[in-house]
Amino acid sequence: MATVRSLRRWAFVHKWTSLACTIFLLVLCLTGLPLIFREELRELLSDDPPYAVLPADAPLANLDGVVETARRRHPDHLVWFVFVDDDEPQILVGLLPSPTALPAEARRIKFDARTGEVLKEIEPAARRPFDFLDLMLHLHKDLFADLPGELFLGFIGLLFIASLVSGVALYGPFTKKLGFGAVRRDRSRRVKWLDLHNLLGVITLAWALVVGLTGVMNELATPLFQIFQRTDVQAMLQPYRGQPPPAPADLASVQDAYALVQRTMPERRPTSVVFPNDRIGSPHHYLVWTKGSSPLTSRLFTPVLIDARTGVLTAAVQMPWYLRALEVSRPLHFGDYGGLPLKIIWALLDLVTIVVLASGLYLWLSRRRSPLEARLAELESAVDEA
Amino acid sequence: MRLSAVWRWPLVLAGLTLFGLLSALLGEGGMWWGLSWAALAVPLLTIVCCSVRALLHAGGI
């Protein structure tokens, strides 16, 4: 049975972890709401020209031709990646102004995936104004502070989890005399909101824990990929140490690299080809990202290294457990893996969480006006009743 | 009230939530999506029922 001392400790943890993270969590919940529907909103807000009307089984344009077109349009840039979408008939080619340029400096060209026609040029993120979804994403992901912002929000996520766990510890003693779902209507407004806070909090507890934990995991994506790049990838590149990377003119056919992966791994679908670089992947290889076809395996990416000079398949990289955990955590955070109804449910649970956060804040603000002794007496009477 | 009685419904709802989250992820679409939506809708319906009951009896919260 909970003692007064342990209850006071849990109350202390719940109060301060909640207070420290509430404002940031409100920002995360509010910005997360439109992000749940980002695909639908992007489609709605898009002013891109329409795709050519072609049969569903129209073949993919030759990737070498697409890359050549991109190079001709921007001869002073380096090709960074080719992304072949499986949702829309589009191919995106990313170009960097220099090998050391930041991702925000990359420009992208959108092609019709069947005709190879250029549909749109997308200016570098650093040079174009944020649209609504960019704004929401930055606020949600890093508060416009890049890696420090990601780590800070990851820490906020940990506080949120501590707040949920301490809330569980308090829920039993404080609701022991009430039936499940009871809201004391004969008491003060504050008591009614306390009961609602407890009720909504405990009903959405499992969802909030999953979204909180997977959110922390997502905020660690950058350092986790850096660890992978510096350990596993470097070990794989050991035989290439000391060799100069291939010049752009010496690169093997990207179309052949893509087709080789399709032939070698028919159960997986190649989604993008990253050109040789020092940042993510290898300076000596095409890095072809592949994914499976089921709801789960379509989230599990396996990179395949193709020697960029010879076009020979070097290795299918085994992703370490922490990156697999990151990949599984993404859909469980975004709620985008079960169709539109799941997204609507996700949004409603997000709204309920906003009510829990706001009611928690209200309870603390209204409680500040109560004498300390009255608060402790309330806590102790709850234990006596327990 | 016994501890088990306090936690009975929260545990049932947590179990349904986890089932709903995983069934859409691990299942192959179709029936599993439907089961996921149904399981995840139960906590929301519970909230609606409890809130309506509180509103009806309190004349506002």
List its salient traits.
heterodimer, A: 386 residues, alpha+beta, elongated, B: 61 residues, mainly alpha, 2 helices, flat
- Profile the largest sheet of chain B: none
Rg of Cα set of chain A: 26 Å
Q: Could you estimate the helical fraction of the residues of chain A in percent?
A: 40-55%
* Helical/strand content category of chain B: mainly alpha
| Number of distinct helices of chain B | 2
Shape of chain B: flat
Spatial strand sequence of the major β-sheet of chain A: 4-3-2-1-5-6-7-8
Order of helices and strands of chain B: HH
State the end-to-end CA separation of chain A: 8 Å
Mean pLDDT of chain B: 88
**Would you tell me the structural class of the helices and strands of chain A?**
alpha+beta
How would you describe the overall organization of this protein?
Chain A has 386 residues and is α+β, with helices and mostly antiparallel strands. Helices cover 53% and strands 13% of the residues of chain A. Chain A is built from twelve helices and eight strands. Chain A has an eight-stranded antiparallel β-sheet with strand order 4-3-2-1-5-6-7-8, covered by helices on one side. The longest helix of chain A is centred in the first third of the chain and has 33 residues, at 4-36. The longest helix of chain B is centred in the C-terminal third of the chain and has 28 residues, at 31-58. Chain B is mainly alpha-helical and 61 residues long. Chain B has helices spanning 3-26, 31-58. The two termini of chain B are 26 Å apart. Chain A binds chain B through residues 171-172, 175-181, 183, 185, 189, 192-193, 195-196, 199-200, 202-207, 210, 294-296, 328, 331-332, 337-339, 341-342, 345, 348-349, 352, and chain B through 1, 3, 6-10, 13-15, 17-18, 21, 24-29, 33, 36-37, 40-41, 43-44, 46-47, 49-51, 53-54, 57-58, 61.
